From TrEMBL, chain B:
<keyword id="KW-0963">Cytoplasm</keyword>
<dbReference type="GO" id="GO:0005839">
    <property type="term" value="C:proteasome core complex"/>
</dbReference>
<dbReference type="InterPro" id="IPR023333">
    <property type="entry name" value="Proteasome_suB-type"/>
</dbReference>
<keyword id="KW-0647">Proteasome</keyword>
<dbReference type="GO" id="GO:0051603">
    <property type="term" value="P:proteolysis involved in protein catabolic process"/>
</dbReference>
<dbReference type="GO" id="GO:0071361">
    <property type="term" value="P:cellular response to ethanol"/>
</dbReference>
<comment type="function">
    <text>Component of the proteasome, a multicatalytic proteinase complex which is characterized by its ability to cleave peptides with Arg, Phe, Tyr, Leu, and Glu adjacent to the leaving group at neutral or slightly basic pH. The proteasome has an ATP-dependent proteolytic activity.</text>
</comment>
<protein>
    <recommendedName>
        <fullName>Proteasome subunit beta</fullName>
    </recommendedName>
</protein>
<dbReference type="Pfam" id="PF00227">
    <property type="entry name" value="Proteasome"/>
</dbReference>
<dbReference type="InterPro" id="IPR029055">
    <property type="entry name" value="Ntn_hydrolases_N"/>
</dbReference>
<dbReference type="GO" id="GO:0005634">
    <property type="term" value="C:nucleus"/>
</dbReference>
<dbReference type="InterPro" id="IPR001353">
    <property type="entry name" value="Proteasome_sua/b"/>
</dbReference>
<comment type="similarity">
    <text>Belongs to the peptidase T1B family.</text>
</comment>
<dbReference type="GO" id="GO:0005737">
    <property type="term" value="C:cytoplasm"/>
</dbReference>
<keyword id="KW-0539">Nucleus</keyword>
<dbReference type="InterPro" id="IPR016050">
    <property type="entry name" value="Proteasome_bsu_CS"/>
</dbReference>
<dbReference type="GO" id="GO:0007420">
    <property type="term" value="P:brain development"/>
</dbReference>
Length: 329, 238
């Protein structure tokens, strides 16, 4: 393409090239162009759609190692997302603000997107990148499920995503996803749940906690990032508001909470982060993943929460006659 | 040109009037051609409106360059930003619409066009189209739909959206008038077509007052189940 030559884009490395799906066989909804970043030499043209070349493919090729054009606009960033594992599954929360260098591009974005019935991904980073890679991940998980008659595990999905993002390391791609889900077949789930509910003593709780972590079933949480980070954990908070969220979440025990208490904790963490971080705000989305799958709580506007919180603190001050402790859950 | 892209900030506004100091001149493939686009979705209609001024730096290239493009009988797209990329992008979308029509024997729906545009934009993630797109049209159930995009393909369905050079001025006004945001004790009436058209005209008149890149004329495309009606309204020419 003439314009790409003038800008110095004519160099494309021989080894790494993108499968550009042929334009004639495109179906609506199929991610186009950057087809998961699989290098062509690995697949040896077994995938008919992916390997066909046509005159339009140089138009789509963009080498990740070539110097990028300075953009006259900026892409959207800034967020607070968090997720933690507890006895009732995984609790996930995120704000809904998409900001773009000082302007709020959209006050009602969905940062938590379902991948399949037992897996949810929270997005942080550039909006378009997160949207695209969540779709690619959902597609690959669905293909795995159809080919292997079982759901891909959370760790498997995380590893797959990490490998798909690896060719783009060093480019301007900015994606940080936390994959939150429940591993398991579903049949033996109910026995384990009943056993957990029947043992309220803290000693027994530790047993169930360690048992869940060691077995192949139960809640799982992974963090995958475009710079190559791939971590499993029990608590992750991502984004510009994450320090504030960590402060609230690290303030007390998490494993033994009930579903209602965990929801309150997650909501409080996002609320405090949106209060202090300029790039997070508007509403909060809360998801809960259990052995039955993901459930979504109704989106809540945090604007009223600030006034309610101030009122509560005022009342406590009047009652207690001393400085009230803030951030109480 | 003397007024090259390095003198402009991120959103197309000029940086300093008399800049004295060393400047490295480099070719930039992008230019900012101004213009504002707006789309509103109602119960059974959608309106896509744009001004018709094409500018670059201190000059006006044309007073009659509308930024709305008709895609199908139920969908209109508004593109503002770099005019070169707007033209190429609309050509690509038209070609893909034809291909879809020939292989699937039906016209693309608004939602399908939006999803397709997202992937077209993302395929150029590392050398993006400098275009702010807004699609307005009717969905499969006949309700108004607006889809707004960023230059690399992130999109979602809205009720109303402003894009382009005066977007930062218009979006808060629409939030208040159509979304009833930041108003207490107000009845949320559904927007009728006549009120929506009048609101769009008023809003653009305001934009032309305060944004130098918006003006000359306003072109409205009103999409209903009876088809697409076009209306042109003059704006400030200074």
């Amino acid at each position: 393409m003439a314009l790409q030559d003038v800008c110095g884009f004519s160099k494309t490395p021989l080894v790494l090239r993108w499968n550009s799906p042929s334009w004639s066989s495109v179906t609506v909804g199929a991610p186009h162009g950057l087809d998961g970043g699989r290098p062509t030499w690995r697949h040896a043209c077994s995938d008919k759609d992916g390997c066909s070349e046509n005159s339009l493919s140089p138009f789509l090729l963009a080498s990740p190692s070539s110097p990028s054009v300075p953009l006259p606009f900026s892409l959207s960033h800034g967020t607070t997302t968090l997720a933690f594992v507890f006895q009732g599954g995984v609790m996930v929360a995120a704000d809904t603000r998409a900001s773009c260098s000082g302007l709020i591009a959209c006050p009602e974005v969905h940062k938590v997107m379902p991948v399949h019935s037992h897996l949810v991904a929270t997005a942080s980073g550039s909006g378009a990148d997160c949207m695209f890679w969540q779709r690619v991940l959902a597609r690959e998980c669905r293909l795995y499920q159809l080919r292997n008659h079982r759901r891909l595990s959370v760790g498997g999905a995380a590893k797959l995503l990490s490998h798909m993002l690896h060719p783009f390391k060093g480019t301007k791609l900015c994606v940080a996803l936390t994959l939150c889900g429940w591993d398991g077949d579903g049949e033996e789930e109910e026995d384990q749940d009943m056993r957990e509910r029947a043992s309220p003593a803290s000693g027994e709780q530790e047993d169930t906690e360690s048992r869940t972590k060691m077995s192949g079933r139960g809640p799982r949480l992974y963090y995958v990032c475009s710079d190559g980070t791939f971590l499993q954990g029990e608590l992750f908070s991502v984004g510009s508001g994450s320090p504030y969220a960590y402060a609230v979440l690290d303030g007390g025990p998490r494993w033994g909470l009930s579903v209602g208490d965990a929801c309150v904790l997650a909501r409080e963490a996002v609320f405090r982060a949106t209060h202090r971080d300029a790039y997070s705000g508007n509403c909060v989305d809360i998801f809960h993943i259990s052995s039955q799958g993901w459930r979504r709580r109704e989106r809540e506007d945090l604007r009223e929460e600030y006034y309610r919180d101030r009122e509560q603190r005022g009342r406590r001050q009047v009652q207690g006659g001393q400085e009230p402790h803030t951030g109480e859950v | 040109a003397m007024l090259s892209t390095h003198m402009f900030g991120e959103n197309g506004k000029m940086k300093e009037y008399h800049y004295t100091g060393p400047v490295e001149h480099k070719f930039s493939p992008y230019a900012f051609n101004g213009g504002t686009v707006l789309a509103v979705a109602g119960e059974d209609f959608a309106i896509v409106a744009s001004d018709t001024r094409l500018s670059e730096g201190y000059s006006i290239h044309s007073r009659d360059s509308p930024k709305c493009y008709k895609l199908t009988d139920t969908t209109v797209i508004g593109c503002s930003g770099f005019h070169g990329d707007c033209l190429t992008l609309t050509k690509i979308i038209d070609a893909r619409l034809k291909m879809y029509k020939h292989s699937n024997n039906k016209t693309m729906t608004s939602g399908a066009i939006a999803a397709m545009l997202s992937t077209i934009l993302y395929s150029r993630r590392f050398f993006p189209y400098y275009v702010y797109n807004i699609i307005g049209g009717l969905d499969e159930e006949g309700r108004g739909a607006v889809y707004s995009f960023d230059p690399v393909g992130s999109y979602q369905r809205d009720t109303y959206k402003a894009g382009g050079s005066a977007s930062a001025m218009l979006q808060p006004l629409l939030d208040n008038q159509i979304g009833f945001k930041n108003m207490e004790n107000v009845e949320h009436l559904p927007l009728s077509l006549e009120k929506a058209v009048q609101l769009v005209k008023d809003v653009f008149i305001s934009a032309a007052e305060r944004d130098v890149y918006t003006g000359d004329a306003l072109k409205l495309c009103i999409v209903t189940k009876d088809g697409i009606k076009e209306e042109t309204v003059p704006l400030r020419k200074d």
